[in-house]
Amino acid sequence: MEIKKSLKLNLKRTALIGFAFFGILLLWQVYDTWCPTFLTDIFARRMYGISSAELKSGDPEKILNVQWLVGIIMALDNLAALILLPIFGRLSDKTKTPIGKRMPFILVGTVVSAIAFPFIPLFFHYNNVVGMVIMMAIVLMFMMMYRNPAVSLMPDITPKPLRAKANGIINIMGYFGGACATVLGLVLVLSKYINAPDSERSIWTIEIPFLIASLLMIVSALVLFLTIKEKKLAEELKEDMEEGEKLAAIETPVDDDKPMSQANKRMLFAILGAEFLWFMADNAIGTYIGNYVIYYLNAASSSTSLMTIIGGVASVGGFAIAGIIADKIGRKWTVTSGLILTVLGYILMFLLARPTGIIAPKAEHGEFTFPAILYVVAIARGFGMALVHNCSFPMVVELCSSKKIGQFTGYYYAASMSAQTITPILLGLIFNATLAWNILPLYAMFMTVASALVFLFLVKNIKSHKVENVKGLEALGNDD
User: Fold this and answer.
1) φ/ψ (deg, to 5) at 426
2) Could you tell me if residue 476 is inside a domain?
3) What's the total number of domains in the chain?
4) Rounded to 5 degrees, what are φ and ψ at 469?
5) CB 264, CB 427: distance < 8 Å
6) Which residues contact 235 (CB under 8 A, 6 or more apart)?
7) 280/447 Cα distance (integer angstroms)
8) What is d(CA 226, CA 73) in angstroms, rounded to the nearest whole number?
9) 3-state class of 368 per DSSP?
10) Do 458 and 299 contact (CB within 8 A), yes or no?
11) For residue range 399-446, what is the model confidence (pLDDT) as tens digits?
12) Residue 75 falls within a domain, yes or no?
């Protein structure tokens, strides 16, 4: 009788790999929170000759008229990512260096991005739209060099049955990075800068978050480089990886010497199609929520940061238990449950009445009280999408061998980045046509429902073999 090798997840090593994701989410959170508002303000000056604060008080609907331009700039960055992510994934699969195949891309991408990042608010402050957009493009290009290899590092050294739990840990590490960015947003309130007259705008209000993000990105990459010896670990874990391959939850076994089976192709396309749709929704909220709060709710931007922190805490909770839930009900139903919960959050957001004119404005900057129901929305969205993201990426890399992890990671991010290329432009045009900020939750709700239907009906519910994993605290392993 064949005795199966017990597989156990090394918690400390997985958390250290998560430092790569820490840097990624830290940068994205700062970028997505601040850059759309920078662009709104700078285009208001170009088109109308005045700042967005002056425009808001005089003709607030014109703020919506510039959102299509904001969407185009945000989408062009994502278009570059759509092209570059698969390229860097394939390149890293084939790279051989003394420090590993992923680490060179991680180090170079981090350093260049960190150097360029603080120049974005500098050019914005001096009303230089060309310089600002060029810096945004440089940051995005080199983060793509970093992102795919960094994310591929986890499945490189984690057996397939353990990847959902490992993905939860590295995502929690990533959300610590996002939390750092949102704390900065609470301390340095963007709306105070945007709503202030030009003579009272301090560059340090917007420069400090970018400088701190750059510093923490470099620190996180150094921690990763000094603690994760990529080549050594790949050799040590070879036997575990082979055992994990036998236990993969796929319809037909993966064989690099044969074409991908039709069953596995159908599953891959269904997952990527659903992923495209839920990222259409998720990126719409991520791109425009700052402007929604400042220009529609007329509330302080610090409320957006607090909402992000609350959503981040909910996400950490989701990532912490998603692997356990998936072990009980399967990855398919875990993802579907997360999408349903997210849709319920968007329904609440859509039914929310604009508080302006109902609640008395605050004295400072004439801002209105932020509606507390949006914190509930943030919890539902944060927890729900954590279930989705935690299980979907392992499902994609489950369909390939260890030789193609970077390539399939590229497929995963190509689906997400294509959505993030299209959705800012599409929604910006819808804003321009409808002049209605409340279209944002309706749009997100529609896309999330569509993704749930695709995932529910087209992804086959393949349950794992009964894997003889170590149980309890021992399953988390140690550094031995």
Assistant:
1) -60, -50
2) no
3) 1
4) -80, 155
5) no
6) none
7) 6
8) 36
9) coil
10) no
11) 877 778 888 888 888 888 888 888 888 988 888 888 788 889 999 999
12) yes
- Structural tokens at position 177: 């990075």
Q: How confident is the model at residue 356 (pLDDT cuts 50, 70, 90)?
A: very low
pTM of the full structure: 0.70
Which SS3 state, helix, strand or coil, does residue 154 take? helix
DSSP string over 366-383: GPPPPPTHHHHHHHHHHH
Neighbours of 269 (CB within 10 A): 15
Helix (H, G, I), strand (E, B) or coil at 360: coil
Q: Decide if 110 is inside a domain.
A: yes
Whole-angstrom Cα distance, residue 167 to residue 192? 37
* Average pLDDT along the chain: 79
23 token code pair: 């840097």
Altogether, the residues listed in the chain come to a count of 480
Closest CA to 467 of 271, 333, 326, 267: 326
| Centroid of chain to Cα 107 | 20
Alpha-carbon gap, residue 213 to 177, rounded angstroms: 9
Is there a domain that residue 232 lies in? yes
Who's near 247: CB < 8 A, 6+ residues apart?
A: 7, 159, 160, 161, 464, 465, 467
Most confident of 2-6, 57-61, 120-124, 296-300: 120-124
The CATH number of whichever domain residue 160 belongs to comes to 1.20.1250.20
Give 216-272 as a DSSP string. Answer: HHHHHHHHHHHH--HHHHHHHTHHHHHHHHHT---SS---TTSPPPHHHHHHHHHHH
Residue 480: is its pLDDT beyond 50? no
Range of the domain at 306: 11-463
Report residue 7: phi and psi, to 5°: -105, 140
Contacts within 8 Å (CB) and 24+ apart, 349-352: 349/373, 349/374, 349/377, 349/440, 349/441, 349/444, 350/438, 350/441, 350/442, 350/445, 352/441
